[in-house]
C-alpha cells in the first residue's frame, strides 16, 4: 500500500535526501531522535522490513552501512544506533541515529 514514503520517493512531497540509488533511498527523519537521524528505505513498496525478498533485504542493509559511514563523517559521533520500529509508517525502513551519549536521544 502506498504511504507517505511513496510520495517522498516520487518527489510528491519534499524530504532532505542524503543518498539514493536505483533501489534505495535515505533521507532525514522529519521528527529526529537526534541530529542526523536518517531513514533508509527500499523504493519498492513492502509494508514490513522482514517481508522483503532476500536479495533486496541484503542490498538494503549494505546501502544502510554506506549511509551510516556517511552520517558519521557529517555528524561526528561515537556510533550509529540502528532500529527497526515500524509503528507509524507501513513502508519498510531502517532508522540510523547518531549517538554520542544516551542523553542525545529524545525518546
Ligand atoms: P516508525 O514507523 O518506524 O515508527 O517511524 C516512522 C518514522 O518516519 C518516524 O520517525 C517519523 O518521524 C518519520 N516520518 C513520518 N512521516 C515523515 C515524513 O513525511 N517525512 C520524513 N522525513 N519523515 C517522516
From TrEMBL:
The active site is at residue 93. GO terms for molecular function: catalytic activity. It comes from the Bacteria. A motif (Histidine triad motif) lies at residues 91-95. This is HIT family protein. Residues 4-107 form the HIT domain. GO terms for biological process: nucleotide metabolic process. It comes from Parapedobacter pyrenivorans.
